[in-house]
């Protein structure tokens, strides 16, 4: 049980014990890093609302800024996470006014703002006083973004909160907030979360059984990501910014439908000189079919104008999207061996370049793996059916190019035989 403390206000909220000292203290920087299921994001979302309550009751006026490196739309922000946190606590739910695209205290003193730090921070920083800034998924925040953000959070007693899953030792976030000691930035993993759900425990045990040790420790124990031969695309891709050239081939748009716990995932990609460029993604768990057309359009510009190849297992969903704003959607073909063929095709590119805004795509490329033997560490010829929804969308999108490539190879082989005859 944690307490919000100042001279006059006491309010009880339930948070993991390890984070109580963080929020009981005043500090310029507060944060948590670590593996999946630690409760860090949910706790920090909740505590932004508690802090907003404290500030508003103390007479302060301004905004709570919630940022990520890239944010194309509110769907990619912390908006929904904060809404759910507020609704979970009755006195916070009574204190805030929550709309479809906004959260603010009913006395209008404190409001939330959401932004992408790389390109959109300038549009917000001059409009209101930033009382608190929370940066979630901070691993990929660039040094340039940190240099721009931190001086804008300059009110007396203002704070910057940071939550992230570590990946690269030496990233801008790692250098600033992990390699330099900060008293109230702590490591949080699943064993620090008293509310760790059973469904995640089953996933953790499955990953412990099937993944190589380095990948398992990155997902669940906050370790840096180490390259592994079990990772299917190890050494094949890079994450960097690029500008699309008019001469590139494409676009190649693909869609994989989600279910209750799996995301609906779509990608937009291009090809040039043997290099595959992934420019946009759309990825959301629990996306209702009624909301899918607008979500796709919001996250992949112009997707309605070009052919979109979707998973053929959901013909009713394809039919719905065709009638409701995505007229060029078509079903993929698939077939026996299509997964292996698709992987081979993607690995056949000289390089795969993923734009940094495609956070979920990059994560899948890091995690998509072959099974390993738990005792010997031997890599097995079996693909783990996880972390592949956006990769599946790429396979569907490039069915056309795969077929052309296969036909070309067969033609060349036949021509060769005839020549030697």
TrEMBL record:
Domain of life: Bacteria
Family annotation (Pfam families): Terminase_3, Terminase_3C
Protein's name according to its UniProt entry: Phage terminase, large subunit, PBSX family
Residue intervals of the Phage terminase large subunit N-terminal domain: 28-222
Residue ranges constituting the Phage terminase large subunit C-terminal domain according to the UniProt record: 256-397
């Amino acid at each position: 049980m944690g307490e919000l403390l100042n001279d006059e206000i006491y309010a009880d909220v339930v948070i993991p014990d390890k984070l109580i000292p963080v929020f009981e203290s005043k500090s310029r920087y507060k944060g948590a890093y670590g593996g999946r299921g630690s409760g860090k994001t949910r706790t920090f979302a909740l505590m932004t609302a508690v802090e907003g309550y404290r500030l508003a009751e103390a007479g302060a006026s301004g905004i709570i800024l919630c940022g990520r490196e890239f944010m194309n739309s509110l769907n990619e922000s912390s908006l929904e996470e904060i809404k759910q946190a507020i609704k979970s606590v009755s006195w916070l739910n009574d204190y805030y006014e929550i709309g479809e695209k906004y959260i603010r205290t009913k006395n209008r003193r404190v409001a939330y703002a959401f932004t992408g730090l790389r390109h959109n921070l300038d549009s917000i920083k001059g409009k209101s006083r930033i009382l608190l800034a929370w940066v979630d998924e901070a691993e990929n925040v660039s040094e340039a973004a940190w240099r721009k953000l931190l001086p804008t959070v300059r009110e007396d007693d203002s704070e910057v909160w940071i939550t992230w899953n570590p990946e690269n030792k030496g990233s801008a976030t790692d250098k600033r907030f992990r390699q330099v000691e900060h008293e109230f930035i702590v490591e949080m993993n699943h064993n620090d979360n008293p509310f760790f759900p059973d469904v995640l425990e089953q996933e953790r045990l499955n990953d412990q059984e099937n993944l190589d040790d380095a990948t398992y420790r990155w997902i669940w124990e906050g370790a840096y990501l180490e390259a592994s031969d079990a990772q299917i695309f190890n050494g094949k891709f890079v994450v960097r910014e690029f500008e699309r050239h008019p001469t590139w081939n494409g676009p190649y748009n693909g869609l994989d439908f989600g279910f209750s716990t799996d995301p609906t995932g779509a990608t937009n990609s291009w090809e040039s000189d043997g290099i595959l460029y992934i420019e946009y993604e759309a990825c959301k768990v629990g996306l209702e079919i009624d909301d899918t057309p607008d979500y796709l359009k919001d996250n992949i510009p112009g997707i309605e104008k070009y052919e979109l190849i979707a998973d053929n297992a959901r013909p009713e969903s394809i039919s719905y999207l065709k009638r409701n704003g995505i007229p060029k959607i078509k079903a993929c073909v698939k077939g026996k061996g299509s997964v292996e063929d698709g992987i081979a095709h993607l690995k056949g590119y000289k390089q795969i370049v993923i734009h940094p805004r495609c956070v979920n795509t990059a994560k899948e490329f890091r995690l998509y793996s072959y099974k390993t033997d738990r005792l010997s560490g031997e890599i097995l010829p079996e693909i783990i059916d996880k972390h592949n929804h956006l990769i599946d969308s790429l396979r569907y999108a490039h069915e056309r190019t795969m077929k052309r490539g296969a036909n070309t190879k067969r033609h060349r082989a036949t021509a060769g035989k005839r020549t030697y005859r």
